[in-house]
Each structure stands twice: as structure tokens, then as C-alpha cells.
Prior knowledge:
Belongs to the diphosphomevalonate decarboxylase family. Its EC number is 4.1.1.33. It holds the Pfam family MDD_C. It is built from 8 helices and 14 strands. By secondary structure, the protein is of the alpha+beta class. It has 2 domains: about 5-195, Ribosomal Protein S5, domain 2, CATH 3.30.230; about 205-350, 2-Layer Sandwich (Alpha-Beta Plaits). Strands 1, 4, 5, 6, 7, 8, 9 and 14 form an 8-stranded mixed sheet that branches. A 4-stranded antiparallel sheet has the order 11-12-10-13. Helix 5 (about 235-255) runs antiparallel to helix 6 (about 255-275). The two termini are about 30 Å apart. Bound molecules: adenosine-5'-triphosphate and the ligand C[C@@](O)(CCOP(=O)(O)OP(=O)(O)O)CC(=O)O. The site of adenosine-5'-triphosphate has 22 residues, from strand 7 and helix 2.
Amino acid sequence: MTDQDFILKSYNSNVESGSVKWSSPSNIALVKYWGKRKNQIPENPSISFTLSNCKTITEVTYTKKTSSEFSFDVFFEGEKNEAFKPKIQTFFERIESYVPFLRDYHFNIETSNTFPHSSGIASSASGMSALALCLMSIEEDLGVDYADDYFNRKASFLARLGSGSACRSIEGELVVWGKNRSTESSDLFGVRFDGDIHSNFKDYQDAILLVDKGEKQVSSTLGHKLMYGHPFAKERFSQAHDNLGKLKDILSSGDLKEFIKIVESEALTLHAMMMTSMPYFILMKPNTLEIINRIWKFREENNSNICFTLDAGANVHVLFPKAEESKVYDFIKSELVAYCQKGHYICDSVGNGAKRL
Ligand SMILES: Nc1ncnc2c1ncn2[C@@H]1O[C@H](COP(=O)(O)OP(=O)(O)OP(=O)(O)O)[C@@H](O)[C@H]1O
Ligand SMILES: C[C@@](O)(CCOP(=O)(O)OP(=O)(O)O)CC(=O)O
């Protein structure tokens, strides 16, 4: 498929108003997207677990208007929000040719997240995917009739133009984005991982330890830009291809020890890219490292398959098989909680994707 396949050519412009509502999850990458080209095309493929409890709920009410500029209001967690508007404005500008009705309506966007935003738990992924899905449902309200597959693909295509990782939030349980030699994929949208998944990875758990709930100093968007001219960029992009290939085999064989190696190495490589860019920056906090060291110690002493991953932030995602749930939560409550801001953490697990409400 090409960009052209997603252009909406005709719709019923007589619809006066309506309302649509979606819940869309965040996701956590196992192989990380870090570096992009023009038009939100990733420099390397990535794969993520779709989450279940970390999600955005967005309701969009649309009303016909006469003026031709974009018009929308954002209400975040019940209050009028100006801070989220520029990202949505940029999103609308990027997707206009694919959803031309954007200038015909005023949009009232009421949204909330179940987790802190802008702190490396991919609120841009759940937020932008929820909005993209609402626009797709409006497209349907305007008389456009699509097969299920196309609906999800276009939603993912639009979401990508809001935030790259958002294209991996439409479906579950594992989603791949970015052309590669190992799996079915596209640079334009995310697709469900087409390989076998061993039962060891069913219902995988993710406890997100909130080391720092504040907004991070450097946004992911800026971080991606710093991969231009980065001294290790070429090697990193090629490593991501290799890691995705290895992960495909691991997901099928159920080899948890090998899974841990890839996932932890990906997280540390992501942060190594930040530390070696110019300007360089560090998003981990001292407690991030304390937690990592304690996870390693616990794994060794308990013959556990617990591991960590990080997004672009200080918070730690603790990944583990369902079978280890009770012993890992005992460990978190007795040891790791001390390193979390106000003792807060989120219990999550792999989920099935977005839902219309
Ligand atoms: N519910 C929402 N609706 C619309 N936009 C949202 C929503 N939640 C967050 N955003 C947008 O996403 C931005 C945060 O994304 P950013 O990439 O900086 O941080 P993040 O949440 O840590 O994500 P990531 O882990 O992908 O870096 C917010 O400033 C806002 O513009
Ligand atoms: C570290 C990451 O979470 C980076 C996410 O980057 P974004 O998707 O937030 O960036 P933009 O495309 O600029 O919106 C890794 C990942 O999710 O793959």
C-alpha cells in the first residue's frame, strides 16, 4: 500500500454533527524506534507489546462550521488544555489530505489518560491513536464504508503522523512497524506480528515503576532528530533489524533467557544513543539504576525471568511471565517500591488493542 491508498476522495458533507468515543492503549517497545526520516518514516523497524491498563479515552464531538481554518478545543482530564494543542494542530496539518473533512467541522476533544503523560510511558502513542480512531469513526459517520482491515490500517497510518509509536497502539498483542526482512510490515502503519507466539509470552506482565512522574527534559521528537549525524546511527539501525529477526525466533521458541538479553540490550542501547548524541542528555535517574541493579540481583538469586525495559524516560517497565506474577509483585512491594515516586507503580499486562466505546 502507498500513501495514496489512504486519501479520502468523497464523503457525505451534509452531516451536521455527531460524537464518537474510543479507548486506545499505550504500548511498550521491545525493539525500539529511535530515529526517523521525513513524514514520520522510521529509520529502523520496531516491535511492541500493546498494553492494557495504560490507555487514553477520547471523545470527539464534531459540529459543522462555515469558516475554513482548523477549529478545535481540547479538554484534558476535565479542564481546558492549551498545552496539547500544538501537537494536535501539527497532526491535523499532516493528515489533512487523508481526512479532508477536518476543515468542515469544529472538534471538541475531551480526553483523559489513566497514567502520567510526557514521562516516557508513551502517552503520545495512546493519545494520538485514540484521536486517529475517532477521526476514522467520524469518516464512517460521513458515509464511508470500509472493511475492518482497512479501518485499522488507516487508523494506524493516521496515528503514525501524530506520533510514530502511536501506529503500534491500534491492535494487540504484538505489533511491528517499519519494513524489515523478518516479518510482514510497512513503514506507513503498524501490523500485527505475523509469527508464532509461544505460550510463555501469553498474557505477559508489565509493572511500570514510576520513578519520576514529571515531564521529561527532552521530548522523544527531539531525541529522534539527534539521530541525524549521530556517530553510531548506522550501526544502531542495523542492530535493530538483527534484533527483530532474533526476537521473532525467540517469540516462537519461548526462550525467555534470550528474550531478556534482547529486551534489556535494546533499552540500554536506546539510552546509550541519548548519551552519545550531540547535544547529549540523560533521562535515567539514580533510582532507575538502583531498580535495574535490584532486578538483576533478584533474577540471579531467584532463577527468575524478570527483566526491564525503558522508554524515553526514567520510569522502568518490569516485564515478566504471568507464572511469576505473585513472586514479582512481592519483590516490587518489599524492595522496588522504595525507588518509586510516592511509592507509585502501575500493574499492567499485554492487551488486545483499542476499543470503540
Ligand atoms: N490524551 C491525549 N490526547 C492528545 N494528546 C496527548 C494525550 N496525552 C498526551 N498527549 C500528547 O503527547 C505529548 C507527550 O508525548 P511525549 O512523546 O513528549 O512523551 P511520552 O508520553 O513520554 O511519550 P513517549 O514515551 O512516546 O516519548 C503531550 O505533551 C501531548 O502533546
Ligand atoms: C523511546 C520510544 O518510546 C520512542 C517513541 O517516540 P515517539 O513515537 O513518541 O516519537 P514521535 O514520532 O516524534 O512522536 C521507543 C518506541 O516506542 O519505539
